[in-house]
């Protein structure tokens, strides 16, 4: 009897250690994870390509998702991969890494996704690291999820990825995407990628320097700044990095204020996390990062494999491509009689497959029709799952449906719209310049910080535009969302449905990275 009581007390003690409050708000990592899980499932009821971080956070935290949720996601991913013929992006190879991580998190084999091998896409080292150190981070993480081996002809190796990351370490011990001073997010992500190799002498030394850098970057209350802004995501990445090293952030003396800072961003009312404290509602990107951080931390306390170690999800026969119990239905054929020879045929098909645009009842797409301002807003708001809390101050939208007015309000609240007039002009066609600014604003909203180009895009007709427009068009140019034609951007031209399809598909690849 005494032995049973002793065992019971030990179990209760272990449970208390896991769910004990770790902040002044009396929130626990278990309870906060549950609310973020509900937040994400509500935000993405029909998960598809682009929702990878939601899927990773839900799967690794073992959230009780609705029945068939992961199957729905996988079917949508297969449909997308087949629609783009296995080419997720021509330059951003983190697209492949992110999807590999998400698929292994739910036990799906990324070497056979609708007939395409996504792992082999990481075989070209120069393409993998084109984005900078984060390309190497996530390629290494993706390969290590199920300990994938690349073809013998591959120029990418784990050793080269590690060497590349180590060479990018700055004198202050941290990493940055392109600057000369340590950024907490990039430094923490480097640690996460290197953590599997922490026993190697040179890697251990590098990680020790990085931890010192993170300690030095930390504010007195445990918070971090990235790009001059105190934010949730930086704190979350550091907690995740520590968990990857089997370090409990709540007990490590150097970082024991992290959770105090972390939970100041918690917005219990809607169950998510804010990007910055000034926000009045939870932020989707901040919440997904908080969620997988909580998953990583709770896994550490429970003695489970670390966040990106998917060995616990790997099927017994993982050496061969996983065969689903039932064949996956092929994607619905998108075919319109007026796009068969159109230059944007593949982009139109991808946009329709993702639900961004639709055809007409007469089986046409009308690719050369202009896109209106209200259509441009509706597509973007739906794609990013934006919501509104109040009405937009426009006097010319009263004739539209309540749903459309809510979409306009959501775009207004997210600061996507151009100008401060009380007129929205919903039925007017949108120009290429206007859509560029809207997409750049949407990137800022989703990413938490604007893209600031050092050099303006080499397009002959943008030099006289306002600075905001020049930066926006350069954002499109640098990220291959839209690059103009014959050295010109034609900013005053109206956007056609064909050009819109291309731009929206490319934009979502960027923001969903």
Task: Describe the protein.
This protein is mainly alpha-helical. Helix content is 46%, strand content 2%. It has 19 helices and four strands. It has helices at 2-19, 29-43, 52-60, 69-83, 94-105, 125-128, 133-145, 158-167, 184-194, 201-217, 232-244, 258-262, 284-301, 345-353, 373-384, 402-413, 432-447, 467-478, 497-511, and strands at residues 225-226, 229-230, 266-267, 272-273. The strands form two sheets. It has a two-stranded antiparallel ribbon. The protein has a two-stranded antiparallel sheet with strand order 3-4. Strand 1 and strand 2 (229-230) form a beta hairpin. Helix 7 (133-145) runs parallel beside helix 9, helix 9 packs parallel to helix 11 (232-244) and helix 17 (432-447) packs across helix 18. The longest helix is centred in the first third of the chain and has 18 residues, at 2-19. It is globular and about 60 Å long. The relative contact order is 0.09.
């Amino acid at each position: 009897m005494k032995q049973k009581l002793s065992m019971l007390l030990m179990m209760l003690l272990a449970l208390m250690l896991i769910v004990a409050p770790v902040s002044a708000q009396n929130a626990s990592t278990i309870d906060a994870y549950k609310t973020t899980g509900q937040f994400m499932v509500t935000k993405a009821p029909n998960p598809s390509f682009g929702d990878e971080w939601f899927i990773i956070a839900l799967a690794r935290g073992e959230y009780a998702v609705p029945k068939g949720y992961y199957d729905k996601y996988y079917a949508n991913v297969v449909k997308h991969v087949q629609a783009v013929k296995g080419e997720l992006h021509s330059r951003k190879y983190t697209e492949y890494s992110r999807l590999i991580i998400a698929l292994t998190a739910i036990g799906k084999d990324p070497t056979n996704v609708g007939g395409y091998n996504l792992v082999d896409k990481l075989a070209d080292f120069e393409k993998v690291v084109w984005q900078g150190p984060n390309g190497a981070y996530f390629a290494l993480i993706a390969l290590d999820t199920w300990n994938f081996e690349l073809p013998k002809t591959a120029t990418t190796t784990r050793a080269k990825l590690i060497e590349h990351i180590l060479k990018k370490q700055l004198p202050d011990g941290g990493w940055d995407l392109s600057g000369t001073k340590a950024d907490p997010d990039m430094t923490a992500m480097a640690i996460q990628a290197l953590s599997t190799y922490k026993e190697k002498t040179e890697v251990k030394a590098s990680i020790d320097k990085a931890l010192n850098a993170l300690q030095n970057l930390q504010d007195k209350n445990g918070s971090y700044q990235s790009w001059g802004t105190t934010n949730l995501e930086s704190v979350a990445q550091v907690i995740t990095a520590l968990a990857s090293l089997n370090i409990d952030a709540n007990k490590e003396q150097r970082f024991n204020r992290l959770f105090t800072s972390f939970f100041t961003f918690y917005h219990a009312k809607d169950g998510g996390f804010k990007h910055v404290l000034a926000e009045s509602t939870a932020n989707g990107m901040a919440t997904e990062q908080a969620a997988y951080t909580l998953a990583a931390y709770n896994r550490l306390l429970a003695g489970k494999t670390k966040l990106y170690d998917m060995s616990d999800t790997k099927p017994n026969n993982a050496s061969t491509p996983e065969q689903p119990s039932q064949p996956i239905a092929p994607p619905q054929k998108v075919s319109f009689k007026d796009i068969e020879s159109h230059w944007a045929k593949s982009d139109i098909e991808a946009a329709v497959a993702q639900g961004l645009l639709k055809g007409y009842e007469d089986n046409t797409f009308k690719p050369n029709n202009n896109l209106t301002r209200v259509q441009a807003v509706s597509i973007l708001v739906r794609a990013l799952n934006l919501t509104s809390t109040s009405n937009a101050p426009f006097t010319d939208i009263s004739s539209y449906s309540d749903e459309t007015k809510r979409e306009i309000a959501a775009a207004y609240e997210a600061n996507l719209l151009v100008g401060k007039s009380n007129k929205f002009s919903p039925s007017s066609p949108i120009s290429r310049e206007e859509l560029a600014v809207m997409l750049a604003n949407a990137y800022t909203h989703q990413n938490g910080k604007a893209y600031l180009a050092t050099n303006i895009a080499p397009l002959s007709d943008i030099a006289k535009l306002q600075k905001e427009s020049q930066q926006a068009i350069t954002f499109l140019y640098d990220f291959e969302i839209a690059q103009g034609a014959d050295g010109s951007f034609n900013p005053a031209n109206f956007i056609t449905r064909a050009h819109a399809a291309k731009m929206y598909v490319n934009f979502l690849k960027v923001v969903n990275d």
